[in-house]
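Archive maintenance. Older records in this collection stored only the sequence; we are now back-filling the structure field for every entry so that each record is complete. The fields below show one back-filled record exactly as it appears after the update. Entries are processed alphabetically, and Phosphoribosylformylglycinamidine cyclo-ligase is next in the queue.

ARCHIVE ENTRY
Title: Phosphoribosylformylglycinamidine cyclo-ligase
Organism field: Clostridium putrefaciens
Length field: 332
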Amino acid sequence: MITYKEAGVNIKEGYEAVKKIKSHAKKTMSSLVLNSIGSFASMVEIPKGYKNPVIVSGTDGVGTKLEIAFAMNKYDTFGIDCVAMCVNDILCHGAKPLFFLDYIACGKLNANVASDIVKGVSDGCLISGCSLVGGETAEMPGFYKDGEYDIAGFSVGVVEKDKIINGKDIKEGDALIGISSSGPHSNGYSLIRKIVDNLHVELEGEKLGDILLTPTKIYVKPVLKILEKFEIKGMAHITGGGFVENIPRMIPKGYSAKINKNSYEVPSIFKYLMEKGVGEEHAYNTFNMGIGFVLCVEDDLKEKVVKELSLMGEKAYVIGTIISGGDGICLE
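Back-filled structure field:
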């Protein structure tokens, strides 16, 4: 008789992983969650007070940033990236994240490593104010290498129907406000890994590997506060495709974003990557270049919004304006 363990799947290690994971998930539970981890499905109430609530969902992963984590033997932060990539996306439409689920896959499960990964997910949920209500951990021997893990996530949020942000009212002369990123976030790492051959090189007193593992910034709480005070016409999360692909996604046809590249200081990590051979045009089409989230507002509100973000501890800049015509974006 052959057992599952002999086939490469350790059921007892899986039970131990679930036991450790539950403690991290418990920290994130809100009163809207109707059951606990371990059921076949999760149940979450829509918060009271919505007249016509719309459910907004998004899913994403972390990509090859994971290879940096494996090389640095650090597993407890990229769960934050996974949450950030999802909740920042649904935030673009004005949605408040309610809950999150994760999917973790590996070749050989280590309960302590799985716990570290979910700790990061839990931290990301706490930062964004949503509940970690469930997930899946899949041990697939022979499919993934031992010591390597993959992660993806799924987030669900809610927004009042008449408060959905979709860019439809954006017009010429509106201002674009950029909120600083914490680094490359979770995009462009296939290129980064190709040009960076030593993660222990120091840049401004910090190991390059540690800089590259800085978690993706979660913009949920400051942006939701901004939405309570100001009319925001459009929002963009600067992910894969950088400025070039993401900013135009919030702008109606017939208009473009005119970006002033000198409106803020590009962080050292991006300058370093360009020094290693990435051309400027390609950099703006791959990385966030120091701006992780963009808001579009009426021109007369721009300084007020920047000041409000500043009071919340966010570095924000007026980085451009909306113009008629063009190809979606103009970098100057």
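Update note: The longest strand covers residues 149-160. Residues 111-128 form the longest helix (18 residues).
Entry marked complete.
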